[in-house]
Amino acid sequence: MTDNRRVPTADAPRGRPADLAATLVLLILHACLFGATFGLLGLLVMATDPCGSVKCGDPAWIERAMTLATLGGGAVLLLDAVVAVYLLSRRRRAFFVPIIGCLAQVGLTVGAVAMELQAGPV
To answer: Model's pTM, two decimal places?
Structure first.
């Protein structure tokens, strides 16, 4: 009788399930950061409320910030997922890819917030 149990070899590293789980959790975290970016930028639009009575910056900054968050953040999330799936399909470590993506998302969020604050009171 043949024993069909899988024996770990050099081609199948032991940390593979942990890498897969960590990669998926970090990709979900990145998607949550992408959504939180819109919540934050949506609330910061209210910084222009006093603009009826005081001098404010150019309101076009709000649209520019939302465009950066939408297109830039979406591109980073998509690239993050594609590279992670590619590395996982090649049986290589991929958990670091969503970490880099999350850091890029935080950087985009900080940039978009700085842009959006340009529209508020001077």
So the answer is: 0.81
Dig out the tokens for 19 from the structure.
Answer: 């890498």
Taken in order 66, 121, 60, 118, the sign of the CA dihedral is negative
For 120, the 3-state DSSP assignment is: coil
CA distance linking residue 96 with residue 93, whole number of Å: 8
62 CB contacts (<8 Å, ≥6 apart)?
45, 48, 116, 119
Residue 3 confidence (pLDDT)? 62
Cα distance between residue 116 and residue 94, in whole Å: 34
* CA distance readout (Å), 18 to 40, 99, 111: 32, 15, 33
- For the record, the structure tokens of 16 come out as 């593979």
Note the pLDDT of residue 45.
87
- Asked if pLDDT for residue 2 goes beyond 80, the answer is no
Where does residue 57 rank: exposed (0-12), middle (13-18), buried (19+ CB within 10 A)? middle
How many CB atoms lie under 10 A from the CB of residue 27? 21
**23 near 100, Cβ under 8 Å?**
no
